[in-house]
Design a protein that fits this description.
alpha/beta; 2 domains; 10 strands; Rossmann fold
Length: about 290
């Protein structure tokens, strides 16, 4: 298992923020990133539909031999994390618990707002997770439809983008919060206009770094970290959409060329995904529940 790659998926480009954090913290690990751009934005879909999609996309990565799955999408984490952990014999890490811990660490007053997609807000997952973790921070969630579409179109700065962000965040400007949780992995790519709107006194929190730390600690705990310097790490990029567009925008966001992006088709959406057994377990080496 040690030499197998880490699989990361999101509805499109947003999860690249998590991929970059993993690359920085775990430079020796092989990474496979799958952007399901054929079905973005996830946040406008129902939670049951998202669970079906997430199981199918995860099944594709499990079939490819990953040793761990990172659900680099708040909406998919909210909809499907328990189902994914039950279905596959690899550890699965989501982005919501790390985001709550990061918010609790950053907030000075305990008052924070999560901006997220409609699906994430409808799930109530940030509020219930903060209560379960006894994080000591009061969270409320606000939906920001349209932000994902801005990122996927490559529009992340400029006066028109700032104006759209200002309109959506206007209700927060008198809320006396000190922390704003970017509850969608696309939203850090809009960090500049968001910060311009809410002001410097509000700390922006992303779950990307905390998620990478969780992945590192989990792999270390089960003995699956690759040996440093054994060989150069590899990164593969897959998309269900247009690979040329994905490569162009992804390279711009990461600041480095992605190389060839592989087009893939995810079969069986709406059915049991490949890699999952009828009894809820997928093939592979099952780790202990403590590890997942």
């Amino acid at each position: 298992m040690r030499e197998q790659p880490i699989g990361v998926f999101d509805s499109g480009l947003g999860g690249l923020t998590v991929l970059q954090a993993l690359t920085d913290l775990l430079p020796d690990e092989d990474l496979i990133y799958l952007g399901d751009t054929a079905r973005y934005p996830y946040g406008e879909r129902s939670l049951p539909e998202l669970e079906t999609i997430a199981l199918a996309v995860a099944g594709h990565l499990v079939d490819g031999g990953v040793k761990l799955l990172v659900v680099a999408c708040n909406s998919a984490t909210a909809a499907a994390l328990p189902a994914l952990r039950a279905a596959f014999d690899v550890p699965v890490v989501g982005v919501i618990e790390p985001g709550v811990r990061a918010a609790a660490s950053a907030s000075r007053t305990g008052r924070a707002v999560v901006i997220a997609t409609r699906a994430t807000v409808a799930s109530g997952i940030y509020e219930t997770t903060a209560e379960r973790l006894e994080a000591g921070v009061q969270l409320r969630s606000v939906a920001c439809p349209g932000f994902v579409e801005l990122v996927e179109a490559g529009r992340t700065s400029g006066p028109a983008v700032t104006a759209e962000v200002r309109e959506r965040l206007a209700p927060l400007l008198t809320a006396r919060i000190d922390t704003l949780v970017l509850g969608c992995t696309h939203f850090p790519l809009l960090a500049r206009p968001i910060s311009e709107v809410v002001g410097r006194e509000v700390t922006l929190v992303s779950s990307a770094d905390e998620t990478a730390f969780e992945v590192r600690d989990l792999l270390d705990r089960v003995g699956w970290l690759r040996e440093p310097g054994a060989r150069p790490a590899a990164r593969r990029f897959l998309t269900t959409g247009d690979p040329v567009t994905f490569a162009r925008l992804g390279g711009r966001f990461l600041g480095t060329p992605l190389g060839a992006v592989e087009p893939v088709t995810i079969p069986g959406l709406g059915e049991t995904p490949r890699g999952a057994r009828a009894g809820g377990r997928a093939r592979g080496t099952r780790t202990s529940r403590a590890a997942s």
